[in-house]
Amino acid sequence: MLSKPILKQSIQANWKLWLIITIVASTILSGFIISYDAAGFASIAAAAEGTAFSNILSSLTSLLGSLENFYKLISVILGIVYVVFTANNLVVNEVDSGSLAYTLSTPIKRSSVILTKSLYLILSVTLMYLIISLAGLGASQLQFNNVTGYPITDDVKAAAETLNQEERYLSERLYLIQEDEHAMREAAVARDMDTEAYAIYLEDLIRNRSYKEAAEIITDERWDIYEDDDDMEDSDIEITTEELLEQPEMLLTSNDALAAGARIHGISINDYRELVVGEIDALEVVEFENTEPVEEETPEIEPVETEENQEETDETNENEESEEVEETVVVQDTVASTPQREVSEDNAELLLQTVIDSSATALDINSEQVRDNLTFIKDPTALALSTQTTGLNTDQIIMMANHAMVSSARSVDRALEFDVETYFWLSLGLLLLILAMSSISFFASTLFNRTGLALAVGGGIPFAFFLITMIQQLMDSANGLEYMTITTLFDTDAILSSGEFGWGLVALGAIAFVLYTASNILFTKKDLPL
């Protein structure tokens, strides 16, 4: 049975430390989220590649990934500080000081005392990390609007000011930006693009969002149909955005999915249906071209030469020579637009870097300035030098610049996406880890009768686990260390990548349950030096 006086006493003795740790952790997490800069952090991660800090900084390319260091390091050390000192204050300090003798002299049973104190520690840790998680959700929603809606990026902010619309309203109706030329210009500048590249980016973004929402609706409809079908796996029922992009004909089977896609485009359902049919036809053409068999060349039969044939051949050759002379001028005029080399996946990155360096040289600026704002590549002076150094024509270079700008902008959008389910598992995993740590400290507090010894064991083991985690983060290869700490059971990498992590969390919960139960049994039966 719980004891209200013991619970009240535990709260009064430990609330200050609880409040300090909660505020500090919530502030740090909120600061991490508010200060997140997708483009800047991606540059930092790229610069740190190959160094001792590459493991720590490699996750900065997404908002949730940037929180990995908070969940694996900062929040863990703060949680350890709280549970170590609180566990000692709850039991061994009172035993060592003799104050527990007065408590046990009352009608309160020893089992009620230890049960109440253990539940206080469990509940206080749970409440602490619940508040921290809610603070993170609130900060992300206020800063980026990505918890309950689409992220508000710099272009949406600029366009919203131009159109005199609310940012959140406009982030869900991007087609309004497409319809206003001035808004397009301002939005493009905000994303370091010209209007040509921004128009490509915006169209691609709207298209992907329409397919994403349609895929969610189709998946829900398939769940209603196949939920009780034991032969269907979850992966077979779920339709992803990528699958729908490859098979857009699935859209035509659902009116609700068509309505969702039409809403994103700001058009009628019939117009959106025609748009989807057009994309299906385009995919079929591409597929046909890729699978069209190559026609075999039939061998030419050489005619037998006669004197008449020879005369005709000589006349033909003279005519062809005169035509070649006339065509030389035309060839010279068109050579500037004819590609001298092809762009492929293997050489695209190298060619882009060459174009950036050439543009920087032509404009007398730093290459980093060009990389930060790829519109410099389209400057006529830069284009002239780039065509000479790369062997590409103007159209190829402009297309490459557009592709790079769109790809960079889309990577920023993906970095700002907030997966609530992933965030939930990160928060739950952290809570279970701290509860497991607290069970170690609490067990030591009930096992020993001297504060110093309980603190050394109950605090030393969790801190040792934390130090091993630090070493793992800093070292590229630390084989064997993962078996020496329970922090490995909280696999943030697997959570962020949607891998297998469930059994690790179960193990952490089991550790906490076993040690808290053992603590209650041990304290109830042990002889106390009262």
Walkthrough of the structure:
Helix content is 73%, strand content 0%. The chain is mainly alpha-helical and 530 residues long. The protein folds into three domains: 4-147 and 420-525, no CATH class; 154-289, no CATH class; 307-416, no CATH class. Helix 5 (68-90) packs antiparallel against helix 24 (451-474) and helix 8 runs antiparallel to helix 26 (502-525). The chain is elongated and about 90 Å long. The protein starts with a helix and ends in a 5-residue tail after the last helix. Mean pLDDT is 86; it is low at 296-309 and 320-337.
Q: What proportion strand?
A: under 5%
Strand count, sense and closure of the main sheet?
none
Question: Helicity, in percent?
Answer: over 70%
State the helix count. Answer: 26
Rg from C-alpha positions? 33 Å
Report the structural category: mainly alpha
Shape: elongated
Mean pLDDT figure: 86
Distance between the termini: 23 Å
